[in-house]
Amino acid sequence: MTRDKIPEQDFDALLAKRLRNSSPYIEDAGFTAHVLQKLPQRDQRRSRIRRLGVLGGGAALCAAMPFAFSAGMDVVRWTYELDLQHLIQLGLVTFGVALGAALVWLVRELDWI
Amino acid sequence: MSLSDQDLIARAVKQRDQRAFAQLVLRYQSQVRTWCRRLCNGDVHTADDLAQEVFIKAYGALATFQQQAKFSVWLYRIAFNTAAGKWRKKQLDWCDLDAAADVGTEICEATAIAQTGDIESAMQQLSEPQQIAIRLCFEEDLSHEEAAGVMGIPLGTLKTHIARGKARLKSLLSDWS
Questions:
Q1: Which residues does A contribute to its contact with B (CB < 8 Å)?
Q2: How many whole angstroms from its chain centre is CA B40?
């Protein structure tokens, strides 16, 4: 078949057939990781602030240990004096707070809001 | 379950979620790197640098991406503009988009191409704007409007590149059927 005789549509179809998917898939091989390293590091900054917060909180807790110990003894004494009903109420409130926090985390993670 | 491009883009924009953006990079890296290799005349290292630049620019401009367009087309456009900028600064050996002249081919070379039906060799004989236009429309399956948008040229100019490129290919692949 000579070029003049090839209908335009057939030539287009042949061209598309020969060209499409002619390029092999390029494996990632660390490319995505390189791109992520070069992105503006907002998330890293946030996690650094979080880490500093945890460290600061830990340091404050250590510093407050001597005071906490004597206060803690009072709490223990107070707990012994609590009756079962109050203990259950305390447990329920703690459970509720934990559940609420877990739900908030889940909603944020799944992008529901 | 994998999220759609739209969902990943929304997460990356709203929450600056880099994991969502990483999914997009992973999804399109092969296409974009292939496209960049074409823009860099096959120079793999320069092309990968260009592709990284493309994704970094895309991340910065993600909020401006209009969801009715294809994400891949948008990335191609960024790649093309970035390459064009480098070409203008002579950082990249590249082409003149306005050049419409056909590239001369030795007769013996044309005969060899026709005998083997080697489309890649035939494509190499076209001017670069013609190659790019034909690849965008026939290899990447973009519409003429999308391809013109990627190349930043008027639709008429794109159609001219395609028509001339196809005529040249037909000539080179005259025994091809």
A1: 1-3, 6, 11-12, 14-16, 18-20, 22-23, 25-28, 31-32, 34-36, 38-40, 42-43, 111
A2: 10
